[in-house]
């Protein structure tokens, strides 16, 4: 069985030690200064020690008081934190973000650690698909989609307009435009045909070079697989410089020559019929912040 002095005496001592004043401790605890003095005297009688040196207009802790104060301070702080935690049920929020496979792998996924540091109370669920999801359901709160729009029934804002250029592995050595006749051209099939898609044919036109259907091509159904083929040195690919900025900066890919050709725009999209909650607004603000400037 514990043998401890009264809680009132311990509270009076901790408050007086923190303020350096019986009067201020009394104000905090809504009692008189005489009551504080009485409780501390009871504590001193209990311990057989002098805990305060009484001076004019203030009190100063003795060595015994200095030893006791941090123990009580930390104890009362722990009580307060635990009671606050118990009194506030912890409810986590979840935000579902849907985007294309390539954007997920090469832009969004490498950055989510930064979001978790800023918003540890929000869980991110990341959905990758090249097919648009219905934002009117619970499948996603936010979508990042690639194209030119329009997006009827949606609130859409431009996030990133990319550019495409030839890239390849440095394992292939120094590459010149003339080498395009010998190297496989890595390509992928676009989900939607559009005359302004940054295709190899459009790039050759922008570069002022003749396009020949007889060129050796390696065509993938998925943009991400085309990126992996380029990283593996299987040829030269026409890919987004923005999605591959980290790979180029790290030297895993190089851009041997130009020109670059404009791509489409990644849009932040949400349903016009739903007002986003604070957690969704936090995710939207973070996505915007990831762009330079």
What does this structure look like?
This is LysR family glycine cleavage system transcriptional activator. Belongs to the LysR transcriptional regulatory family. The chain is an alpha/beta fold. It has 2 domains: 7-87, Arc Repressor Mutant, subunit A (Orthogonal Bundle); 94-289, 3-Layer(aba) Sandwich (D-Maltodextrin-Binding Protein, domain 2). 38% of the residues lie in helices and 23% in strands. It contains 10 helices and 10 strands. The protein has helices at 7-19, 22-29, 33-47, 63-87, 101-108, 112-118, 200-207, 223-231, 245-249, 278-289, and strands at 52-55, 58-61, 93-99, 122-128, 142-147, 154-167, 185-188, 217-220, 236-240, 261-271. It has an 8-stranded mixed β-sheet with strand order 4-3-5-10-6-9-7-8, with helices on both faces. It has a two-stranded antiparallel ribbon with strand order 1-2. Helix 1 packs across helix 4. The model has no long low-confidence stretch (mean pLDDT 88).
């Amino acid at each position: 069985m514990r043998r401890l002095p009264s809680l009132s005496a311990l509270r009076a001592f901790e408050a007086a030690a923190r303020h350096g004043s019986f009067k201020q401790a009394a104000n905090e605890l809504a009692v008189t200064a005489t009551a504080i003095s009485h409780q501390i005297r009871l504590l001193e009688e209990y311990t057989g020690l002098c805990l305060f040196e009484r001076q004019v207009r203030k009190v100063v802790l003795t060595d015994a008081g200095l030893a006791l104060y941090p123990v009580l301070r930390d104890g009362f702080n722990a009580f307060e934190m635990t009671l606050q935690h118990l009194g506030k049920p912890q409810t986590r929020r979840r935000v579902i973000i849907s985007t294309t496979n390539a954007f997920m792998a090469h832009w969004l996924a490498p950055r989510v650690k930064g979001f978790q540091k800023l918003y540890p109370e929000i869980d991110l669920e990341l959905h990758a698909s090249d097919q648009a999801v219905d934002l009117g359901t619970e499948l996603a709160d936010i979508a990042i989609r690639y194209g030119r729009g329009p997006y009827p029934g949606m609130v859409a804002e431009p996030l990133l307009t990319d550019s495409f250029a030839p890239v390849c592995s440095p394992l292939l050595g120094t590459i010149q435009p003339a080498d395009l006749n010998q190297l496989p051209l890595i390509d992928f099939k676009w989900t939607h045909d559009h005359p302004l898609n940054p295709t190899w044919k459009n790039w050759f036109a922008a570069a002022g070079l003749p396009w020949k259907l007889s060129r050796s091509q390696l065509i993938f159904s998925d943009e991400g697989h085309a990126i992996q083929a380029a990283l593996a040195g299987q040829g030269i690919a026409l890919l987004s410089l923005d999605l591959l900025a980290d790979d180029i900066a790290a030297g895993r890919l190089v851009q041997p020559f130009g020109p670059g050709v404009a791509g489409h725009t990644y849009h932040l999209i949400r349903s016009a019929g739903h007002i986003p909650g604070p957690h969704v607004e936090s995710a939207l603000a973070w996505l915007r912040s990831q762009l330079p400037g």
